[in-house]
Design goal:
The structure holds 2 protein chains of 2 kinds. In chain A, 26% of the residues lie in helices and 16% in strands. Chain A has 13 helices and 14 strands. Chain A has helices spanning 9-20, 22-25, 51-62, 67-70, 102-114, 133-139, 145-148, 222-225, 243-247, 269-283, 322-332, 352-358, 376-379; strands at 40-44, 74-78, 119-124, 154-158, 169-172, 182-185, 194-200, 202-204, 208-210, 288-293, 296-298, 309-311, 315-319, 371-373. In chain A, β8 (202-204) and β9 form a beta hairpin. In chain A, α10 packs across α12 (352-358). Chain B is built from 13 helices and 28 strands. In chain B, α9 packs across α10 (243-261). Chain B starts with 8 loop residues before the first strand and ends with a strand. The chains are: A alpha/beta, B alpha/beta. At the A-B interface, α6 of A face β20 of B.
Chain lengths: 400, 495
Amino acid sequence: MTRKTGCSRREFLGAIAATAGAYMARPVEAFSRPAPASPVTIGLCREYTPHVVDVLSTMFDQLGGLEGLVRGRTVAIKLNLTGDATDRFHYMPPEMTHWVHPQVIWATVHLLGRAGARRIRLLESPMSTVEPLPEFMVHAGWEPREFLSAAPCVEFENTNYLGSFKTYATFWVPNGGWLYKGYDLNQSYKDCDVFVSLAKLKEHTTAGITLSMKNCFGITPCTIYGDDVPEDEPGLFPNGGRGPFHGGNRLPPKSAPPPVDPHGWSHVPGYRVPRVTADLVAARPVHLAVIDGIHTITGGELPGYKGVRTVHPGVLVAGRNCVCTDAVATAVMGFNPMSMHGTPPFQACDNMMALAEQLGVGTPDLERIEVLGTPISKARFPFPPVFQSFGGLYTRRSPS
Amino acid sequence: MALNAKWVPMKWPCGPLPIALLHKSKSGAPGLGQTLEAWLQPSTLEFLKGSPVNSLVIDWAAGGPEDSRQQRAVGPLLQAGRKLGISFVGRITVMENVARATAAARAAGLSAVILEQPQVQALDLPVILQFPRDQVEWRATSAIFSSTGNVWPGVKLKTMEGDTAIAGPTGVPWVNSNGWFSLLAREMAPGKVLWLDVDPPASVGASHPEEYCLAVADARVYASRWIISLDDEMRAAVLKRETRAMDAWTHMCETISFFESHSDWSAYKPMGVLAVISDFRGENAFMGGEVLNLLNRRQVQFLIMDRPRALSKPIKGLKAILWVDAASPNAPQHAHLLAFVRQGGLLIAATYWGPSRVKPYKYDWLFGYDVYGVDKGRIVVPEKGFQDPYEVARATHLLVGRRNDLVRLYNPATTNCYPSIDSERHKQLVQVLNYSTKPADYVTVWVNAGASSARLWSPVRQDSSVVKYVAASDGTDLDLPTFAVNCAVEFERLP
């Protein structure tokens, strides 16, 4: 069977295996049964106005409503506030370019509260700081107090370090994981009943796309997975970014779960970042994925990349399965979500959705995903393929 | 004869004395000796015509046999310079026979001398005292005084890849600036003028001539002056009137003239919600100074208070006080500080000297500090005293918080800013400096006030232009056009 996307499922899986060779099949034992499929909804929304609440409300209703998911429960929302608070594309505030917009956050929080969520926690791991998350937002020119009015019992947590807890929570990847057997995270990701990934619709210079799955890359604390961490225990302060995830230049502290195979270690970011992402969404399942594509950027995930420009897709995407949701969002961006390594948007990296599918998280196969609301064809806003500067052939070296 | 605060000083190395020192050190670029000879010629002064430079610093006495030859040799230069309205300041680096050297300087027509130590006896000329900057005797400072041991402003080279600033350990490029020290001098020696003595690294002029403009601006923004000092290659190139060198010289003169035409800005008062209190002397000099340096690098706006004089007036507009020294406040200061805390202020101190029976608590984001709630305010104290200035600056920044920012820069990259306000508290000025050799673009200045009549000033255009501003998050965003080294936004604060 050949698809409209130009790639059959058999070809897709075969090509993945051929590209990644033995690494793809080992050490993860692929699920024997097909990864689950789940409906995804698309809503058109031209601007960040109070109308966002109405659009999202309709979308959540199309997904079966939020009440059954969140009533009486603690909901944790991982926001997408990547980079420094003062980084802007030209003179534009970050929410119009590379951060999820406060209007979308507010609307999501409001609807979760309206559906009966007992407690809603806004989580993010802001760059290189232990400052409380509201402070980080203020630094960006936001007013975090507005989120407190969206629903009862709204809280904030900076998850880039230990925070208000005494220990980190270990999340083991089912079936062993691609790169690490598990990940140590801030307890906020454990002390919740429902986990929401609230992301921006963007491309990514290393991973091809950054949507609800890649947003979860930022749940990892840089006190463990950052550039300057001690060898035995987590650091106190998060410094810099997650260089070791990208380049494999060092291992996390011994207190954290070890790599799956330290001897079959790649240093290629296009190999590593999609695998870490797939591991994370398998270890810390996403119950609701919401993607803000009303205003965004193309050409990279941060404003500093050459060739970045603003775009206005005017779209929101949501679903209960992050792989399915990202697959639909990828299609909205004009790409084939089942593209192989070497094909846009994965010119120099592996397809994180396919890797997550292998872990049994969900399917990126559009033929198995029911799309609700606006059809993909009417929402499609083609993004030009991003220039991937960190790719290359996979190498196999031991970690230094 | 008196020191003139309007002097624009420039080092003028020439003659037998620096040549002898050059031979002794066996260093210096090839041909430097000839350059030093050539700069002795009165005709060299021609390139100063039309420039704002009006004071030349020459070597006068070092205690060696070359002193008398030097003093004779510079005679024609002094004569020609005076005709051009230039004043000369002689550098005396020996502590013996200072009176005799000074008398000779007066006889030769010099206007002042630079000395490294105060003199007991009266001298024939006004003295500019020069100190290593960590050993300034603030009470002994002259109307103009000078510091050595300053840094060459710019992005620290080890964090550069080519022309690109790369992230330091905290993701922020490491910027060297003397701004904090100029602010400290302003507080510790009020009404006096600081001359910053720092020479450029080799061949700055050849590779990045804009660094000279930055050296001027990094001093003048904070109301001090840089003793202009050209590198060896630049001095040789200027002699030959090489185009690139003359362009660099022209740009530097434009920058100096820009600040001369805005000399009223020096009277504007620094702005800050944080007061940093120390005596900045002796064993407190390092900790106090480095905390200022690091706070400035973090773009925290602060006011400096000299501990003995601090808190003699009511505290207005302050949100936080950092008491750096281990010494406790005196009784009146103690009363002022406690009143400040009780009304909601934040006090960060090396040891706790608040009310007894207050049990401390912790913030999970502030490691190693105890927090004491006292009425509406807080006293925050490190468990083991202040040890690392980096940690003190970081903790202070976290505690003061973003919500109390007076000014923020968006897309700051390698820029920093200095906010000040006129005595009527009506006109506010934000001067922005770019420490990179690449132009700064898309920088937005946010101020915590409504603004009107915003004007942009830049050395490139001697007149001002209108700058775009929009209301944004309880303040105003002002978008700056691309600029090379420095610019300033001046606006009226809305009530």
